[in-house]
Amino acid sequence: MKKIKPIRIIIYIFLIAMAIIYLAPLLWVLMVSFKDSNHEVMTAPFSLPQSPSFDNFTFAWTAGKLGVATLNSFIVCAVALIFSMVIGSMAAFGIARLRWKLSKLSLTYFLLGMMIPVHCLLIPLFTRFTRMGLSNTLTGIIIPYVTFSLPITIYIMVGFFEGMPNELIESACIDGATIYQIFAKVCLPLGKTGLFVTGLMTFVGNWNELLLAMVFISDDFKKTLPVSLSKFVGPYNTNYTQMFAAIIIAIIPTVVVYCAFSNQIVDGLTAGAVKG
Amino acid sequence: MDKLLRNKKAIFIFMAPGLILFTFVLFIPICQSLYYSLCDYKATSILGPKFVGLKNYRDLMKDDTFWIALKNSLFFLVFSCVTQLIMGLFLAGLLTNIEKGKNLFKNIIYLPCVLSSAALGLLWMFIFSPKFGINKLIETLGVEGFVKNGPLWLFDTSGFIVLPMWVIAFVALWQYVGQSMMLYMAQISGISKSLYEASYIDGCSKARSFFHITLPLIRPMVATAMSLNAIGSLKFFDLVFNMTEGGPNHKTEVLATHLYQQGFKYSKYGYASAIGIVLLILCLIVTAFINKVVKTEQYEM
Description:
The structure holds 2 protein chains of 2 kinds.
Chain A: H1 6-32, H2 38-43, H3 55-62, H4 66-96, H5 103-112, H6 119-131, H7 138-162, H8 166-174, H9 179-190, H10 192-208, H11 211-216, H12 225-229, H13 240-274
Chain B: H1 2-5, H2 8-36, E1 39-40, E2 50-51, H3 55-62, H4 64-97, H5 102-110, H6 117-127, H7 134-140, H8 146-149, H9 163-189, H10 193-201, H11 206-217, H12 219-235, H13 238-243, H14 255-265, H15 269-293
Antiparallel strand pairs in B: 1-2
Helix pairs in contact in B: 3-15, 4-9, 4-12, 4-14, 5-9, 9-12, 12-15, 14-15
């Protein structure tokens, strides 16, 4: 019979405690969001809802404008994702594969972007975009989102393109492919995993972005999810059940994405850092 | 082939969109920000920014809230670097040593990293509100009168580092420790097993092999994870904004929230730009420092 070491048991007890610390708050929000009155939250926050109802969700979705916000978030993230992937992988290809003098320098230029906090850019961008009529439009936040996603996209994709064997490109070349065909038909399909991983990270990052969206958009019908959330907290009376329903609506999409692709997200995270 | 890869037109087409976007949305605004920080510039200024030299920076020195914000940001920086390093390494060490449920626990701990910190901020604000939430939970568990006499959590204002800052720092640790853990785990799993076997044959315990093999070998990753943490904690905005909004009485202001308040509530663009530049300089100094001190020569693995 195999003996179980006591240290094992202690480790597992500790890990289970950690798991509880991580999951309990989230499960609790889910539970409270089904309660039907603020009064019940105040008096018995930790018991199961007496008469579970979906009203909070319907209210948050329609009157709280979270439905519009979800749609906006989705549009912004999807468009930003497509553009950052196209522009990023093109630049990465140019840096990794084409032969020109300044390719290393331009990589450094892009990577510097990772160190720069968004906060320093807010004011110049805001004043310029206001002048260009881009403030309060979704385009106005898509452009910065694309730009801020470029460094990580380029970084990871350069790694992928550099790792591809030279022979591939040579043989495509001999078969008479143009450089654009080599990029689109040989290199991109081979770098699919890289694109997928960076895409996931970009999407999750933009989905959660608050500061820039908050500054650039004041129209209720153009707000993204994280911005709309703050409307649920009033200075004097907050309807907690609705707020919690709103929290659930805001985090469900990323939870789903995470559950489906957790391994790829982890790969992306480590791929981005390991080579640093 | 060489001709194909040196094609000037192709290089231009591949690089231009990225470089143009990057220059116009990132590089030029930074220069502008630097210039604005030297200007008297408010949203109401009709003539646009007016050059006033270092006035904004001199005002910053006299601004009490700025010093609170700087203190809180630095506290945050130190707290998150230290705790994330210790907790991250500890969890990574534990998780690489167990067989069953490794992925499950890993995924659970990493989960909050992908969630919106705006939403999590609201959640934790509720948990730490004095009347319900955690105080109520403790009372339900049997401590009489805890709701009345327990700590005020986010509303406490005493002490050098106020209690709300500790609370927020704890929540940030809760949310982001998964990231450090993940990075360390990836690096640890890359270490060759033969090194450990050799050490066990030499009579080394697990704990000792952790300190003498694992730690030195993951040092480059410590530098990377730490700089990510450091930049992240300096940029920190969402949680503070949604949990306390800098209050009570500006006691929990950090640089990012102070910048937001000054720039977009009071429309003092020039002043806020100066805060932004301070933030940028801090980021650059801290990353340079960490890379200099922590990152040393890479070992052959």
